[in-house]
Amino acid sequence: MGGPDGLNGGLTHCRVFWRDGAIVVAGELLGAFTALPSLACLIGEVVRIADEEAPQLHAVYGGRTWAEQQEET
Fold first, then answer.
1. Which domain holds residue 60?
2. Which residues pair with 17 in a beta bridge?
3. pTM
4. Which of 32, 39, 62, 73 is deepest in the core (most CB within 10 A)?
5. Higher-confidence residue: 33 or 54?
6. Tens digits of per-residue pLDDT, 35-46?
7. Which residue did the predictor score with more confidence, 13 or 64?
8. Among the residues of 1-53, which ranges form H helices?
9. Residues 11, 53: contact at Cβ < 8 Å?
């Protein structure tokens, strides 16, 4: 994995970074120019990171997962 920087090499439509004590996955699409395949790719990359990488990121960097935050509210 190699942390956020290690993930970025395999991504095309989003980036992973560490900011203010949190791992952030962000992507940008321009509304007028967004094609469905680009949107599908962005969503697929975020889902893959959430499914495959989040447990390892959480173990290394700590903090709370999105699911844990939802349970607290």
1. 3-72
2. 24
3. 0.69
4. 39
5. 54
6. 888 889 999 998
7. 13
8. 3-8, 36-48
9. no
How many whole angstroms separate alpha carbon 69 and alpha carbon 5? 25
Q: Which amino acid is at 14?
A: C
Question: Distance between CA 62 and CA 26 in Å, rounded?
Answer: 19
Query: How distant, in Å, are the alpha carbons of 4, 43, 65 from that of 55?
Result: 13, 19, 9
Residues pairing with 24 in the sheet: 17
d(CA 4, CA 48): 14
Q: CA 23, 26, 30 angle in degrees (round to 5)?
A: 170
Place of tokens 């990121």: 57
Give the whole-angstrom CA distance, residue 50 versus residue 33: 26
SS3 call for 56: helix
Angle at 7 between CA 49 and CA 70, to 5 degrees: 30
